[in-house]
Predict the structure of Ketosteroid isomerase-like protein.
Amino acid sequence: MSFPSSSMPAESSIAEKACAELICRTAEANAALMRGDIDAYRALNPHAADYTLMSPFGGRPTHEAELTQERWQAIGRFFANGTFEQEVVQAYASADMVVLAVIERCRVEVGGLPMQDWPLRVTLVYRREGAEWRLAHRHADPLAKGISLEQASVLARGEAL
């Protein structure tokens, strides 16, 4: 993992510390989510009021305002009995923003399907709001193992593989 350098060493050190803390907190939060523990996920990973989610299942982006209490509880029920590992591909940090590019490796029951591996490529954007870091954006896709150009074209056309 590398951090782009800042012109001010003290600022860089603070940003790197915040980045390291967010990497750990992100892993803890997502491990809780894979177990279906939505309350722990939300406590560890507070969202910005303007949060956006681009789900690995596609479709239109979800905005924080759409995430009602009922929807959060449904999200918690969507995941069960999972394990979670996180590989940081790259981390970028500044005084007020941290961006993490990670590979998430989950083994989990999703949406009532049998237990399986779910490797995801994920980009996370955290923004500092006062003294607190909040998740402003998450973009995930299930293409960690790669697909062919032909398979990608089928997906782009909205057709089933």
Q: What stands out?
A: Strands lie at 47-54, 62-63, 79-93, 97-110, 116-129, 132-141. The domain at 9-156 is CATH 3.10.450.50 (Nuclear Transport Factor 2; Chain: A,). The chain has a mean pLDDT of 92.
